[in-house]
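=== RUN LOG ===
request id: a7f3
mode: sequence -> structure
chains: 1
length: 567
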Amino acid sequence: MPTEKKLTGYPSIDKPWLKYYTEEEINAETPKCSIYQKIYENNLHFTNQTALLFFGKKITYKKLFSQIDRTAIALASYGVVNGDNVAICMPALPETVYAILALNKIGANAVLLNPLFDEQQLLNRINETEAKLLFVANELYGRIKNILPKTKIETIISCSAVNSLGAVVKTIKKVKTIEGTITWDNFIKNNNCVGVKVPSNEPNKPALMVYSSGTTGQSKGIQLTNDGVLTLLVDAKSVFVEMKRQDRYFVQIPLWFSTGLVATLLTSLYYGLVAILEPLYDLSLFSKHIAKFKPNYMITATGLVDYLYYQQYNHPSYKHFKCLAIGGEYVTPQAEKRFNKWLADNGNNIPLQKGYGMCELGSIVTAASVRYNTIGSAGIPTPHVVVSAFNAETNEELRYGERGEIRVCSPCKMLGYYKNKQATNDFFFTDKNRNVWACTGDMGYVAEDGNVYVDGRISSSYKNEANETIYLFDIERAILAVEQVRQCKVVMSKNDNKKTHVAHIVLIDDADKNATLNAIKEHCESKLPANHVPTLIKLYDTALPVAPSGKLNVAQMESDTNDLIRL
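=== RESULT ===
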């Protein structure tokens, strides 16, 4: 381990988190090749091992590479070359994996479309890429059917979600060919191309593109590079420290988010694990697949762990987790302890792990592991990443424990927002030492021991009638400190045509409603400024609404003003 040194008080100088890593982890170099090439090299001598598990069907690394080669040849036959953008509107299917890695092999850019976008967003995203070829799942075709005539798409490859499960299953599911498209099976039969030209390595070459949510404005293409993704994959070994070949990784987060694509799928294949593909977002199926396939690794949303805790508390599959990690939403220290006890009750003494990340930064920025895991924190920066808090107005770095905007200096950062130079410039800040910092828009601080604490989105606030800033995440944390509260999300709403905040709450089982509401009021009055104390509450019987992304459905809560309780 690195030797201790005297602290200056500034995280970017001291990097106190490095004491948790080995010299080998700190000095690990990024491979100088494509993502595909390194995955191929890492598994070349283990081709008979399982790469993908899809509804019980095992696909070996040998078949994975064979299918990638066939897909690459077919892509070349249809004129796809190095540097082209190719759109993909598919969930986690084996064919999606083949397409992504085949595109990477030939130097093309895989553009992962979010099918939850509205038609105008999808039209804008496809048109700005000028993509001429599109992969689409049959089940998602209806999402884009109407906009296709307004795009430059010339070739559409359609693929049923059950395509890899064989002819019998396709017959049972009554899979039909979509008019005007080429089926996946017919596509890969097209091998008129003599060979595939694999481009030489290029620094910062575009490789994968995902999109921002668009909830606070227009969605933006997040262009990730081979170098950035591979650096993150190298650092993943420092997070999943007990990882070994053929461990099982549940790819539960959709692939159109970088956490699903990079931190789960590509990490799994990079280290020779078994990637359990989950194409459907269904809570009951989600829990059944955990019980059936017994994953060792899973990153998911807090709400889904909460679902398992309350709906399926006891199950022997939980003891197989080497890393059950959550991110995206705050988890209280008391909830974290509750989840840890739940795991222990099921024979697993590895605590719940937390993390923090952004699509713009490849996915993982900070993480806990079996070596370092502090209750309440979002973990520590990964070996090649620097995190600090800044005064957003003066751009001055803050000292340990001082709250400000979380900023990140990372080699895993995006190349930029696609064809949006202004938004890219706004996202990055270059300091006097020429270090480039990503301005995350999140409020938090770095502790002296290297742990990062994230309070919430700075935009999760509003100005009241007196022009005072109300931070909704501060209210949430005060409410969640009340033991009888299981879940809480505070959103801005309008009451009597005035801006206010409403606390959406789920209580623990058997909680006394009136007593808990009184406890919430008393605690908030003792911990919060008067203008932050909640006056409107909405109670839910079982759980807060969840969006298809796995995160809480804030939009639904913002629009729901029925049955409010005045505190």
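=== NOTES ===
The longest strand covers residues 436-446.
Residues 61-77 form the longest helix (17 residues).
=== END ===
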